[in-house]
TrEMBL record:
Name of this protein: Sphingolipid delta4-desaturase N-terminal domain-containing protein
Lineage of origin: Eukaryota, Metazoa, Chordata, Craniata, Vertebrata
MF annotations from Gene Ontology: sphingolipid delta-4 desaturase activity
Cellular component GO terms, alphabetical: membrane
Organism name: Synaphobranchus kaupii
Keyword Lipid metabolism found: yes
GO biological process: ceramide biosynthetic process; sphinganine metabolic process
InterPro entries: FA_desaturase_dom (IPR005804), Sphingolipid_d4-desaturase_N (IPR013866)
Residue ranges annotated for the Sphingolipid delta4-desaturase N-terminal domain, each copy included: 5-43
Domain of life, source organism: Eukaryota
Pfam families: FA_desaturase (PF00487), Lipid_DES (PF08557)
Keyword terms: Lipid biosynthesis, Lipid metabolism
Length: 302
């Protein structure tokens, strides 16, 4: 679509979804990658540290004025929460405790979800399976923007608005595109989150609760740390639906540091990923954000 932006159709392809072919290609080229697959023993400690840091921040912001609560939500808390959402992605692939302890991964994801302020880890897991299985599949992969989104958010200004609202689209799109019955894990996730929010409110008041929730919303939308979404989710060149991201905040991105395609080797500890980086992988840094103004607001996503 190029830098002009516009209202063209989605890019429709009818071949196999790229994760499968990329996985085969990468494993054929670098078979040693298999030896790096497995649970990440550090992940649970890193995530626990982030959750505790956010609880400490809740305590510290309890008496600040609202403007400073929002400032710290955007500048600090939201960054940790953004990182936690990416950790929850990895945990959904059982990276924290391995495939044999799948339940532990589900419960741990609920713990990692606590600072996000709103329950989503169980729903994410439910839909993320489809994302990998049917990447880009119409009506199946709920990460793909709807036709209405593609039609409406077609100018630079509207695309910025879309970016700002991105977390809402992620949360609500599944209910429109592919609604599924609520699972027991989702109900448990909601109860755990509600109890955590009430406890924080009871201990330190409303400001810490809004610090957490507003940070999540702000830092999953129009925020530098969300630059990887742009690199991963938008089509800049015809035929290249997704890109790997190697921008400055990538250490916060856990498994997302992997070249696109390698996350399909879904049990890869993130700290081993430098061993997997392919020479010549397409690199799109945060500067891509400016490019977004002209790129399609729709496309396949990581
Ligand atoms: Zn995934």
């Amino acid at each position: 679509m190029g830098i002009e932006g516009g209202r063209g159709d989605f890019e429709w392809v009818y071949n196999d979804q790229p994760h499968t072919s990329r996985r085969k290609e990468i494993l054929a080229k670098y078979p040693e990658i298999k030896s790096l697959m497995g649970p990440d023993p550090q992940l649970k400690w890193v995530v626990s540290g982030m959750v505790l840091t956010q609880l400490l921040a809740c305590y510290l912001v309890r008496h600040l004025s609202w403007k400073w609560v929002l400032f710290w939500a955007y500048a600090f808390g939201g960054c940790i929460n953004h990182s936690l959402t990416l950790a929850i992605h990895d945990i959904s692939h059982n990276v924290a405790f391995g495939n044999k302890q799948a339940r532990w991964n589900r419960w741990f994801a609920m713990f990692a979800n606590v600072p996000i302020g709103l329950p989503y880890s169980a729903s994410f897991k439910k839909y993320h399976i489809d994302h990998h299985r049917y990447l880009g599949g119409d009506g199946l992969d709920v990460d793909v923007p709807t036709e209405l989104e593609g039609w409406f958010f077609c100018t630079p200004l509207r695309k910025v608005v879309w970016l700002f609202l991105q977390p809402f689209f992620y949360a609500l799109r599944p209910l429109v595109v592919n609604p599924k019955p609520v699972s027991q894990l989702e109900a448990l996730n909601a109860v755990v989150q509600l109890v955590a929010d009430i406890m924080i409110y009871y201990l330190w008041g409303l400001k810490p609760v809004l610090y957490l929730i507003s940070g999540s919303i702000l830092c999953l939308g129009l925020h530098p740390i969300s630059g990887h979404f742009i690199a991963e989710h938008y089509m800049f060149l015809k035929g290249h639906e997704t890109y790997s991201y190697y921008g400055p905040p990538q250490p916060h991105h856990f498994q997302r540091r992997l070249p696109h395609g390698a996350p399909r080797l879904s049990k890869h500890p993130w700290q081993q990923t430098t061993a997997c980086e392919e020479n010549g992988s397409r690199v799109l840094r945060l500067a891509a954000a400016a490019y977004l103004l002209g790129a399609r607001a729709v496309g396949l996503c990581l």
